[in-house]
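Onboarding guide, step 5: your first structure request.
Type a short instruction followed by the sequence, for example:

Predict the 3D structure of this protein.
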Amino acid sequence: MSGQDYRYILDGGVRILVVDDDPIQREFATVFLSGPEASVETACDGAEGLAKLRAGRYDIVLLDLEMPVMNGLETLRAIRADSAFAYLPVIMVTSCEDMASIDSAYDNGATSFVTKPVNWRLLAYQVRYVLRASGYSRAA
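The system replies with C-alpha cells like these:
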C-alpha cells in the first residue's frame, strides 16, 4: 500500500444494508465496508432486505439488481413507495451495465449505480460521498 497505514473510509456511525443473493458479495461487503464506525448487515433477497429495513435503522442500502424472490427493481420501488424511506440513499451494485438497466434503476429512484466486479475501496468512497451529498451522514 505504498507504505501508508490502512485507514477506514466510512465514519460517523454509518449503518449499511447490503441486499444481494450472492453470499460471496455479502461477505466481501461486510469485510471491506465495516469498520470502527461503520456496520454492515446483509439480506439475501429483496423481501428479506425490506423486512430488515423496516425493522432497523440504516443510513444507506446497497442493492443488487438480479435476485430471486424479489429483484432489485421491485425492492427499489417498494423502498421509494414507503414515505419513511423516500429519501434513503440506494446504490445499485450489479453486473448489469446495459443502458436499459441503468435507466430503469435511476427511473425507479436509485441514488447511484455501481457495476460488478466491485472495487471495494472505490465503493467505500462512493458510499461516503452519497451519504454526505444526501445529508444522511453525521460525519463532517
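Each response can be followed by summary notes, for example: The chain has one domain: 14-133.
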